[in-house]
Amino acid sequence: MTTPTEQAVKASNVKEVLAYLVQRFPACFSANGAARPLKIGIFQDLAERLQDDSVVSKTQLRQALRVYTSSWRYLEATQEGAARIDLDGNAGDLIDAAQAEHAAKTLEESKAKAAEKRKAKIAEAKASVTTKAAVAKPAYKKNPNKKANIPSKGTKVNQKAETAAAAPAQPARALTPVASGTVVVGASVLLKLGQNPMPATVLEISKDDVTVQLGSGMVIKTRQDSLYQA
């Protein structure tokens, strides 16, 4: 394990501070998986243990603790009857009903805010796609009324035959499937409907399902394996 002396570089952000705390106090802090409620007043214990440490400051410790204790996995672990732990992992006071209720309410509000942000992001992406489609669509120009020269029936048949004979067969375009896990909101892709691939923009991703919007404005829900590189 790296010692404070060997750790020469000072932590520059909250992520690095949390990683350092997990390294120094593995019985107390965790980087993933289930978290454990922390002892009340643990900041003072940290400040005392790390008073000669050059990697983190007290301000950084406060910020890191605020982020750690407001994470969803920490709030989910703050259940009534769960024991709070100190820096060495020793169990102490138990979470009471009021503390558990406060944690559950904070978790619910945090998830609601995240959902609102996600909705706003999707709405913004849809608005952007609609605006682009409106700009790309050419304005309809009405042709002036004038009498066209109508060819005879025989002429039409001959012209069609000549056109069909002159037009060479076009080879089908080779499509490259979009690699799994690379689809992101706002990306331009091709969606194969029938025989012809159509350009589309990704609006929402839910596991293997993807919601896209065509250039016409139509929104379609499909699967990622139906998408191809634009």
Automatic annotation (TrEMBL):
<comment type="function">
    <text>RNA chaperone with significant RNA binding, RNA strand exchange and RNA duplexing activities.</text>
</comment>
<protein>
    <recommendedName>
        <fullName>RNA chaperone ProQ</fullName>
    </recommendedName>
</protein>
<dbReference type="GO" id="GO:0010608">
    <property type="term" value="P:post-transcriptional regulation of gene expression"/>
</dbReference>
<dbReference type="GO" id="GO:0034057">
    <property type="term" value="F:RNA strand-exchange activity"/>
</dbReference>
<dbReference type="InterPro" id="IPR036442">
    <property type="entry name" value="ProQ/FinO_sf"/>
</dbReference>
<dbReference type="GO" id="GO:0033592">
    <property type="term" value="F:RNA strand annealing activity"/>
</dbReference>
<dbReference type="Pfam" id="PF04352">
    <property type="entry name" value="ProQ"/>
</dbReference>
<feature type="domain" description="ProQ/FinO">
    <location>
        <begin position="9"/>
        <end position="123"/>
    </location>
</feature>
<dbReference type="Pfam" id="PF17516">
    <property type="entry name" value="ProQ_C"/>
</dbReference>
<keyword id="KW-0694">RNA-binding</keyword>
<dbReference type="GO" id="GO:0005829">
    <property type="term" value="C:cytosol"/>
</dbReference>
<dbReference type="InterPro" id="IPR035236">
    <property type="entry name" value="ProQ_C"/>
</dbReference>
<keyword id="KW-0963">Cytoplasm</keyword>
<dbReference type="InterPro" id="IPR023529">
    <property type="entry name" value="ProQ"/>
</dbReference>
<keyword id="KW-0143">Chaperone</keyword>
<dbReference type="InterPro" id="IPR016103">
    <property type="entry name" value="ProQ/FinO"/>
</dbReference>
<comment type="similarity">
    <text>Belongs to the ProQ family.</text>
</comment>
